[in-house]
Amino acid sequence: MTQTPTVNDLAWIVGGAQGSGVDSSATVFARAAAYGGLHVFGNREYYSNIMGEHSYFQVRLSGHPIRSHVDTLNLLATFDAETVFRHARNVTDDGAIIYDPGLAGTKLDDVPTIEARLRADLQTYLVARGLGFTIQDLLKSAEDRGVTLVPVPYTRLLSEVADENHIDQLSKISRMVNMFAVASSFGILGYDYEMMARALRDVFRAKAEVAEMNVRGAKKAYDLVVAKHLAFPYHLEPIDFRGERRVLMTGAQAIGLGKVLGGMRVQTYYPITPASDESEYIEANQIVDSRAPSADPAEEESAVAKEAGSVLVMQTEDEISAVTMAIGAALTGARAATCTSGPGFCLMMEGIGWAGINEVPLVITLYQRAGPSTGMPTRHEQGDLRFALHAGHGDSPRILLASGDFEEAFHDGAKAFNYAERYQTTVIHLVDKAIANSNGTMPTFDPDQVRIDRGEMITDGWSGRDPYKRFAFTESGVSPRAVVGHPGTMFWNTGDEHDEMGHITEDPVLRNLMMEKREKKLELAAREIPEGEKVNFFGDRTAGTVVVSWGSTKGAILDAMDALHAEGIKLGFLQIRLVNPFPVEAVTRALARAKSIVNVEMNFGAHMGGLIRERTGIEPTHQVLKYNGRPMSSTELAAAFRAIAKGNAPRKQVLTYGV
Amino acid sequence: MTQTPTVNDLAWIVGGAQGSGVDSSATVFARAAAYGGLHVFGNREYYSNIMGEHSYFQVRLSGHPIRSHVDTLNLLATFDAETVFRHARNVTDDGAIIYDPGLAGTKLDDVPTIEARLRADLQTYLVARGLGFTIQDLLKSAEDRGVTLVPVPYTRLLSEVADENHIDQLSKISRMVNMFAVASSFGILGYDYEMMARALRDVFRAKAEVAEMNVRGAKKAYDLVVAKHLAFPYHLEPIDFRGERRVLMTGAQAIGLGKVLGGMRVQTYYPITPASDESEYIEANQIVDSRAPSADPAEEESAVAKEAGSVLVMQTEDEISAVTMAIGAALTGARAATCTSGPGFCLMMEGIGWAGINEVPLVITLYQRAGPSTGMPTRHEQGDLRFALHAGHGDSPRILLASGDFEEAFHDGAKAFNYAERYQTTVIHLVDKAIANSNGTMPTFDPDQVRIDRGEMITDGWSGRDPYKRFAFTESGVSPRAVVGHPGTMFWNTGDEHDEMGHITEDPVLRNLMMEKREKKLELAAREIPEGEKVNFFGDRTAGTVVVSWGSTKGAILDAMDALHAEGIKLGFLQIRLVNPFPVEAVTRALARAKSIVNVEMNFGAHMGGLIRERTGIEPTHQVLKYNGRPMSSTELAAAFRAIAKGNAPRKQVLTYGV
Amino acid sequence: MASKQVLKVADFQTEVHNDWCPGCGDFGILRSIQMALAEMQLDPSNVAIVSGIGCSAKTVHYVKTYGVHTLHGRPLPFATGVKLANPGLEVVACGGDGDGLGIGAAHFVNSGRRNVDMLYIIFDNGVYGLTKGQASPTLRLGVKTKSLPAPNMNEGVNPLWLALAAGATWVGRGYSYDIKHLVSLIRQGIEHKGYAFLDVLQPCPTYNNINTKEWFGGEDRKEENEGRPLPRVYKLDAEYDPVVHSWEEIDAKIAQAMTKGREWGDKIPIGVFYKNELVPTYEKRISSRVPNYVSNPPAKQAIADTEGRPVADLTKLLQSLAVN
Amino acid sequence: MASKQVLKVADFQTEVHNDWCPGCGDFGILRSIQMALAEMQLDPSNVAIVSGIGCSAKTVHYVKTYGVHTLHGRPLPFATGVKLANPGLEVVACGGDGDGLGIGAAHFVNSGRRNVDMLYIIFDNGVYGLTKGQASPTLRLGVKTKSLPAPNMNEGVNPLWLALAAGATWVGRGYSYDIKHLVSLIRQGIEHKGYAFLDVLQPCPTYNNINTKEWFGGEDRKEENEGRPLPRVYKLDAEYDPVVHSWEEIDAKIAQAMTKGREWGDKIPIGVFYKNELVPTYEKRISSRVPNYVSNPPAKQAIADTEGRPVADLTKLLQSLAVN
Ligand SMILES: Cc1ncc(C[n+]2csc(CCOP(=O)(O)OP(=O)(O)O)c2C)c(N)n1
Ligand SMILES: Cc1ncc(C[n+]2csc(CCOP(=O)(O)OP(=O)(O)O)c2C)c(N)n1
Ligand code: SF4
Ligand code: SF4
Ligand SMILES: [Mg+2]
Ligand SMILES: [Mg+2]
Predict the structure, then answer these.
(1) In chain B, fewer beta carbons within 10 Å around the N or the C end?
(2) Cβ of B290 and C313 within 8 Å?
(3) Which residues from B are below 8 Å from D72, CB to CB?
(4) At what angle do helices B208-226 and B154-165 cross, to 10 degrees?
(5) Distance (Å, rounded) from C-alpha B432 to C-alpha B381?
């Protein structure tokens, strides 16, 4: 079978039991590829479990930037039986499966972590092909389709390593099978082993010895596979990218970096998946280097940069404490945030209302995950838009930002504080599990693009004759803000309606003025925020079909559009970034002329679709929704858009791909 | 000055410091009038304070049913200075003011509880009339307009009472001034004192001696005023209403009665204004009389009615506990509810999500009050519609009911449990401060109109061969429900996504089926619930102008419509009672042909207006909103509607009347 | 379960795949619960286990009784609702130390005040297991488990103390590797008339490498003990009488329990620290207002006749509001 | 306040109309706070009082310092946020007994674990004042105040015990009608290095007719005392040494405080029950991770230069993520 080789375009999956090192193997794989100039996008899936349930990482590599995962894979790297059972059917016919031949006899029923529904499904599949229920049977069905089988004798290799390193028990180094799987992958892909060695040394930075043992050990698997001389159609080739400084990171890291750069100095949190990754990353790096304030490093340093800064990261007793502690900190002038997911956000309602009525600059980074209730804690969803928009009883202002990719997430992380301080209000930064746990390569962030705007802030004492009024009525609705502890600007806060000093009032006239004052700030934000920060438009402005979406679906939509473009299907794509105040004009303009409006969301209720109709009167003609906990792939989206373009799509398409 | 007498149409206000007995005087006044067959509507206003701040009660009396308060009053009954300062200007020119002549010299500045804004406002008023700043001055300005001044020497009367009853200190009976004010009112209105005596005996049921002393004491004030032979144009005359059994009660009582009749046997709560009144009323009557199950009392009693029932009323440590404890109770088959206001509701988000995913019949009675945050805890608003609709992260089903008046509140109180059990879901019953704290006369409720529907419930053991599946997939989405403790129907609950048994799953296919199952129940509800329970339509079906609203604005709207009808202005009024599932068709039908659609709401954000547009695409042409914490009066609404009818109203009118 | 057949431990086991880490202390607690229920021959349909969120909270899915896996920190109010609506049920609440003493501490304190007749078990592992090993409220100041980037910043609370201060009327501590003893404690806790609190020392081998099975077992103290492990955990002996026999004794017995409960380090007592059945249960207190509460509790009341007409008779109430 | 002028009590008073009931015990506490601040000559701009919700929580509006009137049950986390972001401030948290021990009990417990250097005062009146007299968590079982329809169903908690169990390093109790003593307690609480908890017995004449000023003052015990009132409240004397002088003493001092703290009825002690400055404050603990935390705390850090460019330098972090 001769095939045209596919260079630098690969979907790879590594899987295994939770706690067995799947993550680090994917990181080594991704980094090694990235060192070679390849663009990387990784999507991580795992159960709400500490050890034993199945987790996997899809890593896509490409010669040009990619932003999403796909439904099929070309190379499946496994070292346990479950991974074979779960993923083998999705390997492309021209793909390959790396596996442990020792597991060939493992039966479906030997794997207790496979759900009854999936078990039945696999049985049906195997029965239809006249096969039994073992790994061997499933691999045979793959081989029949043309899939290359790559047995790697993990145990033998482990023994060799153990012998060479004088290790008495194989179990002590059993995690090395991960690296065998990665090395085998690179072997089959014809990729330079040196890149992997470098990645190993980087990932095991803290333990040089372990790194070296892995470098030597994995090489065995690499060599073994290379020696097979497989005619595998997928190849990886290094690309020269010296012109660009590039990083590989997760979304959670990108947001954390944005927040710290943006001046956040207090972050409170209560552990919750997938939000705590961010806090833990920040805590691990809580000492903040300070630069000379001048751009020219040769210039003398000013006092400002003399001292290192720091972020106080507080693990609290619950999310009520997290949000109220952050508000307390914000009252003193520190840029403060908290970071959570749905269940924790549920406990922040009163805090949000209090911050709203007291005009406190509070930032909440909300990592959406599959609800309702505990739902699927480690799975993806964008199901909290409406809840965040209407969070808390009564009417209080808030700004909602939604980031579509790592870079936006980084910049929004910083920008959220500018909005919060300029408009003295709560900013909810909507991100999600997919963005948090995915990783990818990107040009390194340019800190110089970030500016800090603290709004109207009193920093040099109070010389006014009248006493300072924290909630003074002004044209814009914004009152000059002093902070707790500032000399002479004493003020009061209360969750009750209050007068300009901050004391309780129930006066009906003052009440109206205060309600209107608070809301005016949002009107100001709507006027001031540039359209480019409210929405993005991609693709064809004149296209009859316009896709509209928000948040992390962006990558898959763009990749799908690229794919369809090649087929001659042209689409426009309106990405809504500022969810509140809602960009009525920009959205109306972008959608008014479209014949088909395709609302794409990772939730059941089509939240944004409803909001668009509520605010503009425009009703999307098509819904493309997904709510099974797995992010949308570009494959699925391309199919859905294609159907719409061809005119044979129902009004509502529910995407269901998921492993 | 000869005036045409106004018979049985009066707006009366009694005011005084919190804790000084304003409530009981209003109750005596209202009951006494009601005994005479007059229709009553009372609106209560008070500060978030225990003693000293101003509170007042407007009581309207009429020969035909009335449902709202008005902006002016005809008779002001005062016994302190503040009440005069606050209300004198609103007395109609043909009205009267009862006051303590001993307070005539009291200056505005002597009353510390009057807000700076109001003080300034009063000063301007008085200065413009060339007057000083005392009670005397303000009374003079009233007298100049034609208002009758009725000085009642409270202290002298008190002394007489003290003497006659051998009481050593006036302070021991100082509260009797309340009854002087009421008696004086009846004196001036020419109403039979016997009615008042009866009301006094009723209100002080528990203390016969106090009652009699009050009966005798108040008579003095009555006689004193009668002896003045004032030519007052307002008169009250008893009406024969023997044909109808009538009650006088507050909304909180009506709801409590509805819930108990509807079978509620557990109510949890944490104290909060204005919700706790209901719980306290139920607790005070927690033993539930049981009737013979047959309608014919002569028939033999069945076992069912042998034993008295009871409601377990639990004061919890917070609202998280309140909602979760109610859910726990509901799991065992008891009809269970909790009852709260905004801040407490904020703490129920996770509970709502959990009940949603576990399909627990949970009822929450949400007494809205002015937000955001602590806001104005004792003031009115309908500001939680959107929050309740989207409460909790992710998408979970819920039913939202909104009651427009006492009778609906009673029936909805019972019906909420039917919906909750039939659709196995959370029902949020939206009521508010205005409905809770207002009182009125109404035909007594007919318990026979209430039916209990427990939905599909397994009550007689499990004989199925397969194990019982709590979340079995069915056509309708409803799974037959067993309760914790039922023999042989063991099941599991979890906030996680689950399989049919209730065990955790992350399977993408099951997940979708479960999401769809839960939502199907709402679709079922939308189909099954009769249109008459979804919306009401009042007035002219062909009117060009249709008012749309929900909740307690109903009374004022209907009263305003009556007033405008007399002027030849005809309106239609669509009252939305089922907020979710939203009655798309009924609303569309009612609004589609209207030229003007007037959205009336007691909130800042026009919640229902937005929802209508989101769900039907129809945008209200006019907004009539109010958010100063005081319910809408029929006076204001009539003015707003009149302006719209005349074509000279802005798109948005904000009502601002408030004392 | 009308039949009188003898129930075995297996009758309290579900088929659900257990996904705790190998060696997790939770297994011992689960097993002990199942054994205690079997030993007591409780009708599985009449038992409800109510848990919070965490590794520990998954317990309910492995026990074949009614199982209610609730929200993080909320097992107590859920369980209270179940029990008070149907006081005929045996109710056991359980969850993690983070669940019960961090986010759920307000319910912990206020459940003591109520004294509802049920047992609450905390799986005390010093960490937030399911969120990957952050410090829990029982981890002591300065301790650095392998899951922490730096030593713990907060002081630990003593669950026994807190339970005593809150008013729990039965306070015990068990160890997840002493199953026989633990079964007995669970049984006693269930049988106690009132609110029983049981703290169970539960090693989490994955994240807590300080308070391990080996540490509790004193594997590191062989030198002191002629080469044999010198367990830190020891049982309260017969001399320790936890029972409050009269009202006068309360102060002394609480003080005794507090002092005993403070022991830690080389000597960690397990057993029953305090037991007081003089305090009326919440069920009793309700009965003083509603005499037939226990015989006709909320969950058991008929609320409608066969035609769906409400059974409640509002006549008297409406009468009191009538104006004619 | 750069000037060195002497501050008087009046300098800590606002013009806001006070709307507590006549005779409310809150007045004494308010006054004592103002007097303590004046006595200590604290710069009003450098003080923040943080309260929850309730009658008591209105206090902040009457004191002329920064005043933060927060949410029901949440003064502690708000105050912690204020203090830790700017450790140079003097922070006093306050609120009702319902606020702190009911809805807020989880923060009560976990604040003990942190030992942040601030004072928390509970206005302990046995009722939920502002919602009209329901039983609060300190009201004892079976007590029927005039505001209750029936005797209290829940047992009361002892705030001192709970504070000790939670880890508070300074625990005191005052009485709102002994202002001089209360001023001294407040001052000591503020000066204590660590988390100080002060329970103040506060009569609520409107709703609590049991624990009244007269009752605390022993007006009903004249017979026992030759016709003169025999106060129930008495001060701990010099013999009672609450201070933990060495680590070894901790157990004994806590036990002593617990025992003393249980006295109630005819003898109700007020004063300092426990004081331990050996436990490092949270600020110290942070400093062990962030050496310049106190000198350059979050609220004081410059985050941007004059052109608005961030001061933070991410170079090293980005370097560690770089792939070239
Ligand atoms: C409101 C809320 N916040 C956070 C979480 C995330 N969460 C899940 S388990 C857990 C900690 C569990 O620790 P613990 O209670 O000690 O139980 P363990 O896993 O150790 O048994 C947390 C914080 C949640 N589920 N809900
Ligand atoms: C979440 C929430 N629930 C309920 C309330 C209503 N509420 C206001 S004050 C109060 C009780 C106050 O009692 P306490 O804390 O003892 O203070 P006190 O009035 O006695 O000083 C309650 C329950 C609220 N504000 N917020
Ligand atoms: S993380 Fe710890 S507590 Fe959780 S299952 Fe694993 S060993 Fe047990
Ligand atoms: S209700 Fe009680 S606590 Fe509140 S102000 Fe009045 S007396 Fe004070
Ligand atoms: Mg734990
Ligand atoms: Mg109180």
Answers:
(1) N
(2) yes
(3) 343
(4) 140
(5) 7
Q: How many CB atoms lie under 10 A from the CB of residue D64?
A: 22
The confidence band for B303, taking pLDDT boundaries of 50, 70 and 90, is: very low
Residue B504, in any domain of the structure: yes
Which one of A449, A471, A498 terminates a domain? A449
Q: Is C155:C239 a contact under the CB 8 Å cutoff? A: no
C72–A343: do the CB atoms touch at under 8 Å?
A: yes
Cis peptide bond prior to B101, omega within 30° of 0: no
- Closest Cα of chain D to C1: distance in Å? 35
Pairing state between β A535-539 and A492-494? unpaired
Question: Over chain B, what is the mean pLDDT?
Answer: 96
Q: Tens digits of per-residue pLDDT, B237-255? A: 999 998 899 999 999 999 9
Tokens of A401: 């930002």
Is C298 part of a structural domain of the chain? no
Q: For B312, which of C50, C286, C308 is closest by C-beta distance?
A: C286
Tell me whether residue B89 is in a domain: yes
pLDDT digits (tens, 9 = 90+) for A344-353: 999 999 999 9
Eight-state DSSP code of residue C76 = H
Report the candidate in A361, A412, A567, A440 with the shortest Cα–Cα distance to residue A33.
A440
Q: What is the CA radius of gyration of chain B?
A: 27
Q: Is the residue at A371 inside a domain? A: yes
* Confidence (pLDDT) at B242: 87
CB-based contact B117:B85 (threshold 8 Å): no
Using the predicted structure, report yes or no on whether residue B1 has a pLDDT greater than 70: no
Determine the distance from the C-alpha atom of residue A564 to the mean position of all C-alpha atoms in its chain, rounded to a whole number: 25
Chains in contact with B, counting 3 or more C-beta pairs less than 8 Å apart as contact: A, C, D
Mean pLDDT across chain D: 96
Torsion sign (Cα): C138, C141, C143, C148: positive
Same domain, A444 and A460: no
Residue A463 has pLDDT above 90, yes or no: no
What does pTM read for this prediction? 0.98
Residue closest to B406 by CA, chosen among B383, B380, B426, B431: B431
From the CA of D161, how far away is ligand 5's center (Å)? 25
> Is the same domain home to A464 and A562?
no
The answer, yes or no, to whether any atom of ligand 4 lies below 6 A from the CB of B206, is no
Q: Kindly indicate the confidence band of residue A292, based on its pLDDT and cuts at 50, 70 and 90.
A: low
Contact of D64 with D33, CB cutoff 8 Å: no
Q: Are C105 and C133 in contact (CB under 8 A)?
A: no
pLDDT digits (tens, 9 = 90+) for A152-211: 999 999 999 999 999 999 999 999 999 999 999 999 999 999 999 999 999 999 999 999
Q: How far apart are CA B309 and CA B182, in angstroms?
A: 40
Give me the pLDDT at residue D2, please: 46
Query: What is the number of structural domains in chain B?
Result: 4
- Report the CATH number at residue C248: 3.40.50.970
Say which DSSP state A260 is in. Answer: H
Examine the domain organization and report whether B316 and B406 are in the same domain.
yes
* A532-547 pLDDT, tens digit each: 999 999 999 999 999 9
Structural domain of B482? 456-529
Name the maximum alpha-carbon separation found in chain B.
91
Its ipTM equals: 0.98
Single out the residue in B183, B213, B235 at which a domain terminates: B235
In a domain, C4, yes or no: no
Is residue B311 within 8 Å of residue B269, measured between CB atoms? no
Within 8 A of C312 by CB-CB distance, chain B residues are 260-261, 263, 288-291, 309, 447
C24, C139, C209: residue to mutate for ligand 3 pocket, most atoms within 8 A of CB:
C24
Give the relative orientation of helices A193-203 and A176-189 as an angle to the nearest 10 degrees.
150
CA distances from D90 to A389, B118, C98, D5 (A): 36, 36, 31, 19
Q: How many domains does chain D have?
A: 1
Q: What is residue A441's predicted lDDT score, i.e. its pLDDT?
A: 97
Closest-approach residue (CA) in chain C for D112: C155
**Residue-level pLDDT at B293:** 55
